[in-house]
Recover the amino acids of this structure.
């Protein structure tokens, strides 16, 4: 799982929540550009990202990743964040389970 978030408190909270699950490998990026690079390098099954970030918004991140056919990203937009999956390993429909 990759979490892209510029707010330190939100990052800390997510880090603590995910640490309760031993089966989730947690990666983080603090801005959109670093997040795009991390997705390309790590190929995470799940990406959670903030919408409102300085420089590159969450929407911009998704546009870049969707334009890159090798990233294989499918996205769903929530109220305050975006959920994106690697379609080769986790279809977004599986998030509802």
């Amino acid at each position: 799982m990759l979490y892209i978030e510029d707010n330190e408190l939100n990052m800390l909270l997510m880090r603590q929540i995910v640490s309760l699950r031993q089966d989730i490998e947690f990666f983080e990026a603090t801005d959109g550009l670093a997040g795009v690079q991390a997705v390309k390098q790590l190929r995470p099954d799940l990406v959670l990202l903030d919408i409102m970030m300085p420089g590159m918004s969450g929407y911009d991140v998704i546009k870049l990743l969707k334009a890159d056919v090798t990233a294989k990203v499918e996205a769903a937009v929530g109220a305050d964040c975006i959920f994106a999956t690697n379609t080769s390993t986790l279809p977004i429909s599986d998030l509802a389970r």
The chain has three helices and five strands. Residues 29 and 35 are 5 Å apart (CA to CA). Helices lie at 8-18, 32-42, 58-67. The chain has a mean pLDDT of 80.
